[in-house]
Known about the structure:
Strand content: 25-35%
Oligomer: single chain
Number of strands: 17
CATH class of the largest domain: Alpha Beta
CATH topology of the largest domain: Rossmann fold
CATH superfamily of the largest domain: NAD(P)-binding Rossmann-like Domain
Number of domains: 3
Amino acid sequence: MEELRIGVLGFGTVGTGTVRLLLTNGELLAQRTGVRFRLVRIATLDPQGDRGLDLAGIEVTDDAWKVVDGDDIDVVVEVMGGLEPAGSLVLRALRNGKPVVTANKALLAQRGEGLIAEALRSGVELGFEAAVAGAVPVIKALKESLAANRIQQVYGILNGTCNYILTEMREKGLPFATVLGEAQRLGFAEADPSFDVDGIDAAHKLTILASLAFGTPLDFERVTVEGIRHVSDVDIAWATEMGYRIKLLAMARRSGDEIELGVRPVLVADASMVATVEGVFNAVFIEGDFSGTTMYYGRGAGERPTASAVVADLVEIGRNRRSGARGRVPTLSILPQHLVPLPVRDSREQSGEYYIRLEVRDRPGVLAQLTEVLARFGISIDAIHQKGRSQESAVPLVMVTHETTERQVRDALVQIAALDPVSEPPRLIRIESGLA
């Protein structure tokens, strides 16, 4: 039986899961592919660490270059994360003619163009199913299952940490800081949660999905990013009362000759499918011109789900090698010569409905002042909600706008914030209607 000799860069959570899967299901993989997957070498900063695995016959080293340069390695799995040294190691492996499988969304989003070009020059595969949504096979769906479609939009919940925090805030009525601390204690959030709660992780994943969906080069810098640090339990309570839930939504959408790219907290209707995605789960929705909307749901992170996606790419490489196929599926789902940098619409020019929360002193004429400013900027109000009355202390006033641009709303809120009855900076959250 043909053999595929594997070298692994990184032996943390995902690396351990990948090795565990290959050792546990090796015989099943051989039956399904006609290829025997053999672990040859693992590079880690802690070669002596005990992972509870039988590593007999597998070299464990702290020299990562032995993995990418070794003549006894056919394919490299990169699960160490970060930009460096991962980027240099992956580039060397590709230049050495070795296919690479990576779970590194940051590396792909920020340096993917160079790596893909090198893979093309070397005539080898660069697999990254594990870089987006763990075991959820959304990359394969875009590259193959939906290849006949012109994709209109891709959106979803791409960060389980943020989704867990927002779910707990809604269900328990707790503030962000309290729930974040609990998430860290349970291992759902990192000690430094910035990449997750500031939206960076989701934006890296959206960069990859948008490139596959629209045939445009990878360009993380073009994504508008807003995290969830400023989402208040007050806003979540208001959203719930109004029939909405707040989600950190990643959205890539065609808009004429442009695309919209953004990660931000939004209000979604309780009746929508995206609203039902709770806890640490991920979901991706893809709308094609012939397929309509399809949904992909599952665990987006963790040892086993991510390992499943890593090994799925290894299976693809093994099958290609056995059949002699080469370049069967373009890395970004479209032939390289047809990649087109599409203009990205300024997020401030995007139209939609908006939720506005103000803290105001309840005085005669306050509402007239507010609506006068909004009218000056061409903004009409669909609904107004207010609880409590007090001339001494501020009370919350919530307004929902009709469709308008973000620029109009933000410009109006600058003037509203300066009004004497307004005691705190206004809170603005986009409402995404029409989602599955």
